Amino acid sequence: MSYLKFNKEELVNLEYSLNREMLSTNRAGSYMSTTIVCCNTRKYHGLLVSPIDEFDGERHVLLSALDETIIQHDKAFNFGIHRYPNSIYEPRGHKYIVDFQYDPTPTIEYRVGGVHLRKELLMVHNEDQVLIRYTLLEATSNTTLRLKPYLAFRNAHAPSKANTYADVKSKAIENGVSNKLYVGFPTLNMQLSKRCEFVAVPDWYNNVEYSEEIKRGYDAHEDLLVPGYFEVAIKKGESIIFSASLKEAATAGLGKKFNAEIAKRPEKVSFKGCLKNAADQFIVRRGKNTEVVAGYPWFGRWGRDTFIALPGITLSATCTTTGSDAKEKAKTCKDVLDTMSNEMQGGLFPNIGHGDNAAFNSVDAPMWYFWTIQQYEEFTDDRAGVWKTYGKKMKAILDAFRKGTSNATVHENGLIWAEQPYRALTWMDAIVGGHPVTPRSGYQVEINALWYNAICYTLELAREFKDTKFIKDWKDMPALIESTYKPIFWCEERKHLADYVDGNGQNIFTRPNQIFAASLKYSPISENKRACVLEAVERELLTPKGIRTLAPKNPLYEGRYEGDQATRDRAYHQGTAWPWLIGHFIEGMLKLHGKAFISKAKWIVEQFEEDMTSYGISSIAEVYDGDPPHSPGGCISQAWSVGEVLRSIRLIEKYEKT
Questions:
Q1: Number of helical H runs and strand E runs in the chain
Q2: Residue 358's pLDDT band (boundaries 50, 70, 90)?
Q3: Contact by Cβ (8 Å): 583, 516
Q4: Of 96, 271, 374, 412, which has the fewest Cβ atoms less than 10 A away?
């Protein structure tokens, strides 16, 4: 029995099924995503969504949907489903669905009359190609399969509108047609594995409505072009494969290719198996670069997110630290580190964008770089290799901060002061009306904990490999930071660390950023103070779905993450719960309490297993409401959410063995 399986009663209930989305990626930047009944509810949904290098590598929806119709005795049964204004669904093909399962690939079965049809959707790895295999399991008479493609050819962030300049003509190719709606776009090749007829009747389907975009306050209506439809006879027991690709396919080999691809899919028959599959989907190899997508379906690469997520989605997504799988994961981790290392400028990493469009506005990304290297070194046990490969970069970052970067300065007390007008420099980076919601200018509690950890770790390696100059220049810095960190950040009234300190003194809001002073390998505070920090976080911020970003008793607390963008952004770091923070909470607690905390740690992690069959199935959402019932929100699949849950599982297993 499949771990990710839905029955007819669940599938025909649109309130249930439209709130469950599937995702498949090609590991090279393209993806396929829609709901489990194939009704698109987001502008980001589509069967082939690909990055286009000519358009700065941004993702574009090319093939939005594909409707199937079964024809017998001149009677047609349309299995498609689209939403239009006033909550009208047309056609209503979901009523014919009897089964959906995700393992080994998204598979839907339809029944109507004497017809039983299976549809299997598959994203080809490392190619911009989606394959859909149709198998006629039962039929009582001659059957025709009709396929009607809906084309968008637009940026994933902006719905398309009907126009007169789109090229609606289809060009005949082997067992199919190719279309290129606009200049500059790649050609979309749509083909079948069997000779077929294509009937060219180009027409716009107007006002397709995306319900999730309505909720989020965006343009929610789109016009899609249907260039015509394919018709092909299909016999009982026969399989026919539809291919949509940016390269013309050899149709005779589609069946073999489908079987070869599906054989490579990992099993998704357990909680951990689902997380490992989700983890692999964030890794993108394109050209010489290996990068991490922060979240699907709308985020690209983020520097900060990359370093935080990377150990979890690579090193923690394998069962052991030895063997071929472990070596492959370690290589992937290193490939990402190397890609990011090559883009470092002035001690900073690009937080978003590439090249001339990169934004170096993250003060914490460089500090997380050290933490990621620590995880990699611990996993590989290759300290010499780490120092040889990354030592110069590590020293360059520390020197750059000590001299002063574009957004940070190291004061005489050894602490980093980060400030930039109208910018949010930490991970709490939401901006509304041109102003940060949580500005946090000054000494930030987590930045300086990470800074201390980075210095201590680099000194540790420098001493081992006898870098006397670095040792001489930096040996006194840890003690200096230790002597100033506690007096500046400790709040005796709250018995925890201040979130940040500026010209007005301590901001004593109870926030999760202090966790890192308790979880990192090197901490500037005592064990007793770490215990107080974690106790405060557990008491006021811990939820079954992550750590709140602000305590509920605070008057600025927002318990729901919903509404338009401005409303959501105001709640983003003002109470919304984030799954990724549990990794450092669990790590801090295990360091303090050892095996005594294992049971609680397991309970925290296990709360996410139910999410494998909701929202973004087989993955973990970006955020959850701070208030019960802690509904999911944001991206349906977030890299650091998945990564830190996987890392938590590995930490628990490690402490169980000690």
A1: 18, 38
A2: confident
A3: no
A4: 412
Q: What is the mean pLDDT of residues 637-641?
A: 98
Residue 87: exposure state from Cβ atoms within 10 A (0-12, 13-18, ≥19): exposed
**Vertex 73 angle, CA 67 and 77, to 5°:** 25
pLDDT at res. 1: 40
DSSP state of 73: T
* HSE (side-chain half, CA atoms, 13 Å) at 448: 34
Rounded to an integer, the average pLDDT of 124-128 is 97
Predicted local distance difference test score (pLDDT) of residue 2: 64
Topology adopted by domain 5-263: Beta-galactosidase; Chain A, domain 5 (2.70.98)
CB neighbourhood size of 5 (10 A): 14
Arithmetic mean of pLDDT, 180-208: 97
Alpha carbons within 13 angstroms on the beta-carbon side of residue 480 total: 13
Which DSSP state fits 483? H
Phi/psi at 185 (5° precision): -80, 155
Q: Give the domain ranges of the chain.
A: 5-263, 271-657
Nearest Cα neighbor of 14 from 32, 31, 39 is 39
* Residue 354, pLDDT score: 84
**Cα–Cα dist 582/602, whole Å:** 11
53-63 pLDDT, tens digit per residue, is: 999 899 999 99
Q: Which residues, in sequence order, are bridge partners of residue 31?
A: 25, 49
Read off the tokens for 649: 């599982």
Q: Which residues contact 305 (CB under 8 A, 6 or more apart)?
A: 292, 294, 295, 299, 639, 640
Q: Which stretch of DSSP H or E encloses residue 397?
A: helix 383-403
Q: How far apart are CA 608 and CA 272, in angstroms?
A: 11
| Phi, psi for 243 (deg, rounded to 5) | -125, 130
The total number of residues written for the chain in this structure:
658
CATH numeric code, 271-657: 1.50.10.10
* CA 181 to the chain's CA centroid: 30
Query: Are 75 and 69 within 8 A, CB to CB?
Result: no
How many whole angstroms separate alpha carbon 515 and alpha carbon 506? Answer: 17
Q: Strand ranges (DSSP E) for 503-557?
A: 505-507, 542-543, 546-548
